[in-house]
Known about the structure:
The protein is of the alpha+beta class. It is 29% helix and 23% strand. α1 crosses α2, α1 packs parallel to α5 and α3 runs antiparallel to α4. The chain is globular and about 45 Å long.
Amino acid sequence: MKIFLKTEDEIELMRQANQLVGKTLGELAKHIKPGVTTLQLDKIADEYIRDHGAIPTFKGFPNPYGGPFPASICTSVNEIVVHGVPNAETILKDGDIISIDCGTLLNGFCGDSCYTFCVGEVSAEVRKLLRVTKDSLYLGIEQAVAGHHLGDISSAVQEHCESNGYGVVRELTGHGIGREMHEDPPVPNFGRRGNGTMLKESMCIAIEPMITMGKRDIGLMPDRWSIRTRDGKPAAHFEHTIAVRKGKAEILSSFEEVERIEGKLY
């Protein structure tokens, strides 16, 4: 495993790439409503990212199970946990949730973030899933300081979500990030405090809880990309890219634009 520590100049470039991701998610928030297709959202994101001088990193991303990813964002609706492929047939309806994962390449560095949106009026039960998942992200980030271990992040996410009765996906993880979208180390959402790689200042990682309302078991859909819960219950996914610091992690991505438009979940 090879972990690349970033210079301050590189972290600044990563911040710019990640802030663009946050603005893209904010732009998408304006359009998320019943009747909109996930393909329409993809076209909006692709145009917005390219108009701001960046490249959508997801488009063409290789798949060990098949062909490259055909779109610029992942649009995962309801029971789809991650990697949902935008298409003209998936039409958002009142009460849905949609996790939009977005990545950019700007000035040689990557940004990566995800937010789970409500479509219209969503049940209190599902809103709680979103709140708990989002809270677990920030609890994980609190542990992302120099001298701690990856297991401190992982266990913070796991303990919070499981204490609320939710499933924590094991097969998918967060990751290091920099010049490449996926770098070492993997960042699981389950683990034991004090275990795993020690965190060093200027490590940059993407922390991304993927949490299910029911059991944690998942399966691959026929499109060879979309991953869904086996019991058909909804899942939530939130992600920030952060830089490890000595006292407090620095969040490089942002939900500010999304929350300005959609409102906070709590």
